[in-house]
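If your schedule permits, I should be very grateful for your opinion on a structural question. Kindly check, if you would, that the fold set down in the tokens agrees with what the sequence suggests. Thank you for your consideration; the sequence and its tokens are set out here:
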Amino acid sequence: MSRKVPLAAGETARTACARGLLRAGVDERTGELLATRALAERVGWAVDLVAGMTTELLAAHWNATDVAALASGQDAGGRKLPSNAWMALRRLGWTAAPPMGIRVNDRMVRIAQEQAGRSLRSAKWRTDLTSAVITTWPADPAKRTSQEWDAVRAAVPGGEYLPSSVINSRTRQICAFIRKHDRLPTDVFSLECAPKAARMLLLAACDGQQASIERADEPHRALLRLQLPTRPDPRSYKEWTWVSCPIPLPPTIPAAAVLHLPTLRLHQGRVRVDLAYTHPVPRTARTGHTVALGVDWGLNTLLSAGAARLHEDGRIAALGAGGMFRAAGVLAKQHRLRRAEERLRAKADHYQRLIGGRTALAPRLETKHGVLSDEISAIATRRSNLNTALAWAAARWAVDQAVAAGASVIYVEDLRSLEARHMGRTVNTRMSQQIRGQIVDRMRHLGAEVGIAVVTVPARNTSRHCPRCLTPLRHRKAPDRPTTPGWKWAVCPGCGWQGDRDHGAWQRIASRGLVHQTRTMTDRTTGIMAIRTIVDTLEARAVIATTAVESSRRDRSKTGSTRRQTGRPAPRRRRAPSPARLQGLAGKRPEGHVHTGRPGLPRAAHRLQGVSTISAPAISRHRPRGAARGAGFHRHAHATPPRWEIPCPDTTPGMESFS
């Protein structure tokens, strides 16, 4: 079977991964049907054999010399090392063997070498970073000076664009080591122990003598064949048999995609499958964009996004008013789960201290400690699943907005260096718990499917300056409270523009990306696109043009009563009783309100669902806007639906809006 993907003009091959599940298998030698538990048991025996060899390799080569030799890319004779980790380890003479008396084929040894080689290669970057932080150790680790920041960035390979949060996290790790040992660590290998071997099978390191995968007769199924042991300690090759396992393919895998050997993982008594596949996708462009989607991060409003168009004369126009993705209810649920996990961890630590001091109560305390440990794991799993669902939902919403607007690029502000400080315990925690990195990763994944590039731009002054004239904005509490200082509503003292802070920010991000698109850089290893620096001459052109409709629009600010003044105002209620309904006639509307029989709104829709910045009554922090406990994920996340771009007769040429 050919593993090459036929490509048309303007297409490129893309490799992605989808998750699956092995539910059953058939032993080809005996014809025995292996149920889920029996199949997981046999896969677990193979995983244990690989994990033992991987642990042996990591323990033997977890040192600075061997990691540097592997990362150098050359063997002792000066020849270039292969790209496959298992082949590079064999070239260096780093081998592993199963315990005495146990028989495994050479492909199982390859899996162990591939897994260990990947772990050792990834340690090189941590080694360089830790060494740079140690050699440029600051006088005050809690607050580096500008000279100390320049020194540590110069010592780290590629440190000029490295987020400061990465350096700070490594600094805190070294500070913890100093408090424990009263000295600086020599390198990362004294700071960290050898990594544990993950319990998985990397079948990509094998060939057809160990595993193979082909599409089945049905379009949405594949057949995986692999050799598995019939006992935990196979003594001969006869105790390895071929097992055929059907894999239901998820709908995200195209019918023309080429399948690759998957990775098998054990999870809660089942065999999970990470299935890699390659398929053609439209090629994303680094430059040449005319329509872009700007995405801004928020606290209560997780994402604010809108499209902008770059015209031939250099003018930039906003396409519509943009949209919002609000997930305050989901984030509040995440906050409650985090607090519950912290309380349980405090209890578990207390039980652990009591177990060490009181031997008579140790059995009972150990039982309680085990129950708490299981509950902590369950809450951690719920938090992880909630984060994953939120990341996919937010990323899908942003990509749908780009597709609807006809955008070829999404510009996202780069907040990797953002650290929540000096804003109060609650706000600091909420900002630290946001999953911006996961959302951007999934945005890149979904954008690549439709040929939309995702580019990060610097976040400097995106919310501070006016999108129309770049004048510093004045932030107020709400539009109906223009004299109360706040942060949500922005007013420009120069051109008079006013609007939601996040709406002004996405306009600044989209315009900044469009004028700086020629300075987009692509990472050769990861393929990530980013605009790293801002040029003042280009930034001066990053303004949103004012439309003719906006220029002629009269001032509608509410400085007084908006009711028409008449000599005799109409009464708010009918003063005379309604006439009786005649037989056979509909009659007039009855006095007051009447029940129409229409179904009511969902529970979550009754509570402040509208996107508005007008002052609202005080709400409990665990009852945010639009949230209802027990209403489910989709009742807690509220998003502006995508609206396709159509020409609007009220606008000037090229100034289209969403409809």
Q: What stands out?
A: Residues 590-596, 598-622, 646-659 have pLDDT under 50 and may be disordered. The two ends are 49 Å apart (CA to CA). The chain is about 35% helix and 20% strand.
